[in-house]
Structures are given as C-alpha cells and as structure tokens.
C-alpha cells in the first residue's frame, strides 16, 4: 500500500461523514432557500429570492442572538478565567483533581433538566421570593433576557473553563519566577506573561462557546418563555410550526453566513494578536 | 364493557361463537361480548398463572408510542395497560396540531397513536399520513355511543380515521385573587387587562389556532378567519400585547400554579384541573366566542406497531378505563357509555359541561386554518417580534 492510498483510507471515514452529514445537507438547505412554501407546508423548488427579501421579519431573532451570544461568551470568560487560573496555578495537585471533577459533574445531568431547575429558581417562588423577604418587591426574573443569560453562562461555563485551564496548566512556572526576579510586580507579570500565554485557551474557549450559542435553542425556549427568541427558535418554528421550509432554509443559510463572517473576523484578530508573539496560535 | 354484557341469550351466544369461528370477529371481541372475557379477567387476576400478560406480550410487542397533549391522561391507566399487555406506553407531549403535522410530514416519527383535533383530518387524509381504522380491531368502539357532533370529523369521505377521545372548549383561566375576586368575561377584556394591571402576568398558547383565534375574537371576528384585513388587526393586537405577556407556551399550568401567571388562554380540562386545586382560578368562556373542539384517537400511517396501537386505543375506549381518564383530566367525553358512569357532580359541572347558551357562540376549528400560510407566518412573526 502506498503512502498515498493509506492517507486516503485513513481520511475516508471522516471525509464520508463530512460529505454525508455536512456538505450534502447544507447543499439541500441552500437549494431549498430559493424555493417556495408548498401549499400544505414543506417546500416547492423554485428560483426566487422571496425568502431572502422576507428576512427582516426575523430581525428580532437575529438581534437577540447577536447580542446575547457575545454577551454570554464575555460573561462566561470573565467568570471562567479566575476559576481556571485558581485551578491551574493556586491549588495543590490533590485539590486540583477534586475541583476539576466538580467542574465536570454538572455534565452528568442533561442540560434540559438543569435548565428546568433554573425555571424554578428564577420563577416567582424562587429567588424573587427571597428578595421579597428582605423587602424588594416586584422582581421578575424568569422569561427575561437576563434569565436566558444566566442559563447560558451556567450551561456553557465548563466549556470555557477547560481550554483556559489547559493553557494555564502548561505554563512554565520558571517564567513567572524570572519575571519576579527581574523586579516585576505580580500584576505586571500577569499582564505580560500569564495572560498572553493563555490566549490560545481564551481563543478556543470563546470560539467553542460562541459558535454553540449562535445556534442555541433550548435555553431561550425554557428560560425565555417563548419571548426571548434566538435564530435557533425561529428556525424550529419555521420548520415545526409554520412548515415553511423554504423560508426556514433562507434563515438557516443567513445564520451560517453571519457565523462565517463573525468567526473569520475573530480568527483574523486572534492571529494578528498571535503574530506579535510567535508562541501563540489558536488550537 | 362489563355493564353491557351482563345478559346474553343462548342464541346470541351461539351466533357470536359462529362468527368467531368464521373469523368475522376477533377472539377478544368474542370474549368481551359473551362475558367470557370478564370471567377470564377475574380468574386471571386471582390465579397468577392465568394473567393475560404472556399471551398479549407476544402479540403486540413491548411498547407503544403515544403523541399527545399536556395533562391529558390518567397515568395509572397506562400502567394498567402495561400490566394487561406487557407493552410499555411511551408518551411524547406536544403543544399544537401544527407541530404534530410538521413532524409527520418530515418523516418517520416512531409514533403509534396520536390525538389529532377535528380540523386536521382532511389534511392528514389528503397527505396520506393517517391510517384508516379497522373497527374489528376495536371491539370497545361503538359508533352509536358517540354524539355525532364530536365524532363526525373523524370520518373523511365515509372512511373512519379517528375515534372520539374527548371534547372541550378553549376559554381563559383567570386568577380572580388579583382582580378583586372578579373573573373576566370577554376576549377584549383579556387583552385589555393584559396591557393594564395584569402586565407581565398573561400567557397565550404557542399555537396559531387559539392564540390568533382569541385575538380575532376580541375584534368580533370569526375564530377561524383567514381574511387578510382581519388577520392584520389580530397581528397588531398580538404585537402590542407581546411586551406585556408572561410567556408564550401551551404548557401554562406550571406558571398559573406557582403564581407567576394570573391569566391564560386555557383548555377546559386544564381549567377544571386548576380550579379544583386552586379555587380562586376561574375558567370562563369569552362572550365573543372561542373554540369548541373534539380530539380523536388515531394511528399515523408510519406506525410500525399497529397491533399495539389498536390495543391501546381499544383499551382506552373501554368505558371503565375512559371514566378514569375523564376524572383525571376533566375533559368531557362524547361516549354515552362513559358519560353514564360519571358521578352526578361532574355531569353538572359548569366547566366540564358548560350551559348550551355559552357553547353556542363557539366554533369548531376550520381545516383552512391548519394550512393557511398567512396564519402560520403571522404566528411565527409574532413569536420572533
């Protein structure tokens, strides 16, 4: 067997998977997006831009997604970084294992069930009742953008913690000593050494969380009460309620395009940041 | 079933035996009508070796998948079915007929039994998604026992596709505690109070038929309207009211029960359940009108466990089982055999059996609303607004 055939053979499973599960479905969705809604639902192939000209009717869904996804990513980052730093740098090996397990434990339960728990926590008899008890009345949490944000941070935090933890854990501690020997204050060491060296982890974590959030459906559906709508929810509605596959496909294609643009800009920024430090690259 | 079979003459018995031999009735129908089934069941219950489980299990498989609405069954009946047949009932809950239709249109769902509403049958038949029912597989089905009003939509072009499950109305449930002890009486008031002192406390369904229908009713239009101008009015009202809503969901009992929501579009059985547990929650019909509906037991064409599907429907049609369903969910049945067994206080319950003059302005959902692209898009636009 030549090296060439062996390479092809090894790539075949992943290649087939991508073709069947990604390329073909995407092509179908793309073709559908130029079609029309069939009279009793579904799609009738055509060549019209009508679905795309209707996109403004889903502006609110795009706006919600494009504000809450970056906001959720940033919030998750701000909470995850100190946690990852603490885990990687400040804990003894024995505690490290225990704490890492604690970060993973929530994943043992389905996100559906965990989000349901938040319905009760944020509902009138949960946290607002506690506030009422200390005299703050009329607090509404459930079915608000805030509730969705809380759900997002809660659900995606571990995905942010781990990449950052890994990059901080690999950090050569001698660099920190050297920095301090040369007279740098701790915060300066952090800004000049620790933070730049953890950029790959930050980049990976943000990317993972952001991309998943752009397609989020469950958390807004449960904690937004059908009022805080993401593009994912609009898609489910178009396919499963109004049965307008053509319009749904156009919205899906648009989401993919928006995502490609955002992620490309993001990668550019990161690699420019990395260009100034040869050791930084995104995973 | 036992009620009707106490007495059977020798002649009838011999006729039934003959029919059974020729194969025109099933063994179970034979056992039921002759009373031998009841006798066997009594013996079976007391003699472990005679329990029907093993005999059935081979016949219908180990499970049956039911697609249904929220809060719509006595779960103990499912356990009883499993006990009797060995088949486990797997329940999927949905919020609207449109969602069910979309799933069936998209391809294999794995469902064996579902519970479509009157206005959907024409389309299910047209799209060839629904199985015509073989009544010989449903010995507990007795067409003459059903009120035609709630049974007729189950037949299309003279063929039977659905047997009546329950009927009911779509009105509103209001927590009167927050309105000085008063209920409200019209859909206009429903939307006005939502934009006023009930702001942030109202739920509308995630369901085009009832949510758009109620908004149409508020203007005095037909619940089923597909007129563009009337729909535009309804849309404007819904968009105006949206910031004041607590949620858009068809599963509104949790919100009403924990006190977060004070007012909701409500199906009569949910209204009964809420009112029973929390008396200050009243169920009322909008005076402009609203929906009267009838749900049916039906089998999707794609079902791969049809024997189990028939067994479950037949089991639920047994008046002794059905009466427990009604007691659990509070939706009336069109089956006179079951009605006769209901306790008097339920027969006189104003939520379950509203007075005729309250029912008369109500409309059955029209088939056109199911597939009307404008209503579908209006609902989707309202939700993503």
UniProtKB/TrEMBL annotation, chain A:
Q: How does it sit in the membrane?
A: Multi-pass membrane protein
ABC transmembrane type-1 domain boundaries: 62-266
- UniProt-listed GO biological process terms: transmembrane transport
Output the InterPro entries linked to this UniProt entry.
MetI-like, MetI-like_sf
For whether the record's keyword set contains Electron transport, the answer is: no
Q: What is its main location?
A: membrane
Q: Does the keyword Nucleotide-binding apply?
A: no
Name of one Pfam family that matches: BPD_transp_1
Q: Where in the cell is it found?
A: Cell membrane
Please name the Gene3D superfamilies in this protein's record: MetI-like
Q: What protein family is recorded? A: Belongs to the binding-protein-dependent transport system permease family. CysTW subfamily.
Q: What is this protein called?
A: Spermidine/putrescine transport system permease protein PotB
Q: Which organism is it from?
A: Ruegeria atlantica
UniProtKB/TrEMBL annotation, chain B:
The organism's place on the tree of life at top rank:
Bacteria
What are the alphabetically sorted keywords of the record? Periplasm, Signal, Transport
GO CC annotation terms, alphabetical: periplasmic space
A Gene Ontology BP annotation from the UniProt entry = polyamine transport
Q: Does the keyword Transport apply?
A: yes
| Xref: CDD domains | PBP2_PotD_PotF_like (cd13590)
Q: What does the UniProt entry say about where the protein is found?
A: Periplasm
**UniProt-listed Pfam families:** SBP_bac_8
SUPFAM superfamilies assigned to the protein according to its UniProt record, in alphabetical order: Periplasmic binding protein-like II
One GO MF annotation is:
polyamine binding
Recorded coiled-coil stretches: none
UniProt protein name: Spermidine/putrescine-binding periplasmic protein
Q: Can you name the source organism? A: Ruegeria atlantica
Organism lineage string: Bacteria, Pseudomonadati, Pseudomonadota, Alphaproteobacteria, Rhodobacterales
Q: Which gene encodes it?
A: potD_3
